[in-house]
Amino acid sequence: MRRRDVISGIALLALALAILFEAGRLPFGGLSSPRPGFFPLILAIILAIFSLVLLGQAIEEEREKGASPFL
């Protein structure tokens, strides 16, 4: 059911934003010398991208059906 995909996408995006906020407090470093905030930040960005893709696909499929994805 695509409604579940919309809810999952929103929840995962909120989680990714919370991780981004918390990882932003840690020192980042660089590719040659990563610091503690490097991997959480990269993983949070990847999670946000995947959740946006999931959310976009679910909304697009619901639009094609003519239904509202948020009801």
Global shape: elongated
**Sheet with most strands:** none
What distance separates the N and C termini? 13 Å
Radius of gyration: 16 Å
Instruction: Give the total of beta strands.
Output: 0
Low-pLDDT segments: none
Task: List the SSEs and their pairings.
Layout (H helix, E strand, L loop, with lengths): L1 H22 L14 H28 L6
Describe this structure in words.
- With 71 residues, the chain is an all-alpha fold.
- 70% of the residues lie in helices and 0% in strands.
- The protein has two helices and no strands.
- It has helices at 2-23, 38-65.
- Helix 1 (2-23) packs antiparallel against helix 2 (38-65).
- It is elongated and about 50 Å long.
- It starts with a helix and ends in a 6-residue tail after the last helix.
List keywords for this structure.
71 residues; mainly alpha
Short description:
The protein has 71 residues and is mainly α. It is built from 2 helices and no strands.
